[in-house]
Structure formats: structure tokens, C-alpha cells
Amino acid sequence: MSEIPAVAPTVVWVNGAFGVGKTSTVAAIRRRRPDAIVVDPERLGWVLQHVLRLRGDYQDRRLWRTGVRLEIRLRSRLSPRRPLVVAMTLVEPDYRREHLGRLAEHGFTVAEVILDAAPETILARLDGRGDGDSWAAGQLDRCLVGLASLDEADTNGQPLRRLRLDTDRRSSDELAQAILAWLTRTDGRDQVEVMPASADTTSPPD
Description:
By secondary structure, the chain is α/β, with parallel strands linked by helices. The chain has helices spanning 22-32, 41-50, 62-78, 93-105, 119-128, 135-138, 140-148, 172-183, and strands spanning 10-16, 37-39, 84-87, 109-116, 161-166. It has one domain: P-loop containing nucleotide triphosphate hydrolases (Rossmann fold), CATH 3.40.50. It contains eight helices and five strands, in the order βαβααβαβαααβα. The protein has a five-stranded parallel beta sheet with strand order 2-3-1-4-5, with helices on both faces.
């Protein structure tokens, strides 16, 4: 089983456009690291939209943003030696700074993994799950532009490890393997070697 260094509480934030494969990649990480705690911010978003009947993008709600960080901190306090893995699109600079920067300020080791893919690959994945004409598909251009322009200033100057992975021809299992290998590195490099490509470019679904 791959080890994630436990010098400080670790948050692995899997970022990327809607439909790129975040959820399936986190599930593959969890299979390899059963001790990892998966935090799903969309559950709180569902509550805000379907229970409290709040309209619009829940990421724009301070209640949601505060609630996500609170869940991460509480779950880390309850299980301080277990890494936390989050799958959530985060492209707005202010919100990214609010999440990742503040978590780092609270003593977390923050590792951000950005999953990339060609637009046609993402659209094919969304179409494969019946979301070809969905709100998520309509956000693709905004997400790709935002993810391409991320820089260190987005995290309040806090230290942040970052890895970009091309998912066009990699399975969820290959991505999980690459992420866990990267997390164990101590040489300061933020890239992994090119991995063998899988045949199916429409996988993994998000």
C-alpha cells in the first residue's frame, strides 16, 4: 500500500473541469488507500439546493464554502493520521484562495491534483453519462480557462504542491497510481513520468 507522508494533516484536492474524471479517480485512490477519508463537497451543495431551496451555483454561497472547510477540519481532527481526499472543481481564484490557502494556514499539507483532458474528451464523457446538454457541459470553457491560469498567488502565498495529469488516455486506476506515487516523492518535483496510455479515451467518467 502506498504511503502518504504524515508530517501534517494532508488534503489532496482533485481539481478539474466537470466531467474530467475526478470522482472516479478519487474512488480509485480510495481502493488503494482504504484509510483515506473522502470528502464530497457536493453533498452539502445538494442540501443547500434541495433542502434549503437556495438557487444558483452553491459555490457562490459563503455557507457552502465555510461548511466544506469545516467538514475537512472536523474529520481531520477525528482521524488526524488519515489523509483526506476531495473531488471538486475549483476555478474561481477567490474561492480557490479561500479553500486551499486557508487550509494551508490552518496547518494542512495541501496537495492539488489538476486533471486535464481535451474538450472533446470531456464532452464525450459527459455525453456518456447523459449530461451532454447539462449545466456542467455549459461550464466547460470557463473551467478550462480558469484551470489554465492558476498560479501560486491563488493560495495566499501558502506552500502548495501541485500536479497536472493528462487524463485523455489514462484510466482511473492509472491516475490513482500516478497520484499516490507523486505524493510519496520528497525530491521537490511536481511531475510524474509519462505512463502507458489506455485505449479508451472516453474513460474515466466523473
